[in-house]
Structures are given as structure tokens and as C-alpha cells.
Specification:
Blueprint (H helix, E strand, L loop, with lengths): L15 E3 L2 E13 L11 H7 L3 E7 L5 E5 L8 H24 L4 E6 L3 E6 L5 H9 L9 H10 L6 E6 L4 H12 L3 E8 L1 H4 L4 H12 L3 E6 L4 H5 L2
Parallel strand pairs: 4-5, 4-7, 7-8, 8-9
Antiparallel strand pairs: 1-2, 2-3, 5-6
Helix pairs in contact: 4-5, 5-7
Amino acid sequence: MDRFNLKTNYISETNSILNNKFEDMTTISDIRNYAYGDSLKKIHWKLTAKSNNLMVKNFQSTTETSALIFLDLHKNPYSDDINTIVEDKVLEAAVSVIYYCTSNWIPINLVYYNNGIIDYPARSPLDFDEIYKVLSKISFIEKVGLKDLLDVSLIENINKTNVILFTSNMNFDLYDEIYKAKQSGYELSIIYISPKELTGINDNDTEVILSNLFEAGIDVYPINISDDVKSKLER
């Protein structure tokens, strides 16, 4: 995936963006040895020449996270075959966005519920393989839905950052929670995987909800089972 719409208007105009990682380029937090994947632009050339080792400048981050990624693991009421196809599509979309973010040094936190709230950080391309392993072992068996997960996770988070939601469940309770988060200052994107092609059920309520969220200024990505995820997310 070559692009995905992430808002950056919560970053101060005095700060610079380096490889899409939000940092205050005027403040060096520390200096360390070069590691694979580091940008050459961050090399401290004078210290490198003195030590004969590549040394890298770390700059102070302007935000603790640039994106919170919420994954809905609530179990759908369909057959096992349909559930498996829908869940695979949800994970495909989530992996695409996570890979885009980590490849571009955009810090994320993957948040989901599994016998408690799991908050898994990733900060660089080196983190992708580990987070991919985590996703490969995930099961969609939870009774706690995305509405409750958002309610608990966002209420104490003071960083009004990007929030990206992945779900195949949409209802008016979740709509209210998403709208409340938008009013609180979060920039939201919703990736909704529709089971309609498999179930044959036309969910009018979901269509109304997605339309209303779009009109409220929320980025909405409805994806059908047969859709190409990359082209839908890069729109």
C-alpha cells in the first residue's frame, strides 16, 4: 500500500515531519549506534567521524502515538465458513494499514480485547514481523464489542490522535461512541468489512450509520468481500 489518509493537523506547525514520523527536529533526545532501517538523514556525521562508528540522532517525539488501531474481535452470528472469510478480510485490511504505518515510521498502538484490553505498540519497520505474528494468532471469539473497547480506551487518553477502527459489526451504539470520540477531538477512520455478499442480507441500518458518519467528517471505508483492499484504502 502506497498511501493512507492520516491527519496531521494536531502537530504544531513548528515541528517537522521526517519519514512521516512526527518529531521536534530542534530537540535531540539521545544519540545511539546505527541500526538497520534508520534513516541516513539522522546520522550524526561529526560524531561518526570521531568514533569510526555510524551514530544516529534520536529526536524528541511530538506525540506519544500517531495512530491508535482498534481491532474488533467480537464474534459474528454467521456460519463458521462465513465468519472465517469475513475475519480474514478484516485482518487483511488491518495488516495493510499496519504495514503502511510501520514502513513509514509512523508510530502506532494496536488495541484489541482478549480477556482484557491488549495494547501492542509498533514504531518502525523492524516491529512489523512481530506484530504480524500476533495478528496471525488472533481469534474472533470475544463478547466485548468495539463500542465498549473505545469507551474504556479513549476516555483516559489525552493524546487526540488518529484512531483507525477495523470492524465487520456496525450498530447505533457503536455509532454513538464513534461520534462522541469525534466530538472529543480524535481524527477517526472506519474500515468496515461488509458480509453482505456472503449473507445476502442488505443491512439498511449500517448504510444509514456509515452515511451519517461520513457526513460528520469521519473517513469511512466500506469494503466488500470481493473488493481489492489496497485500492479501497488508497482511494
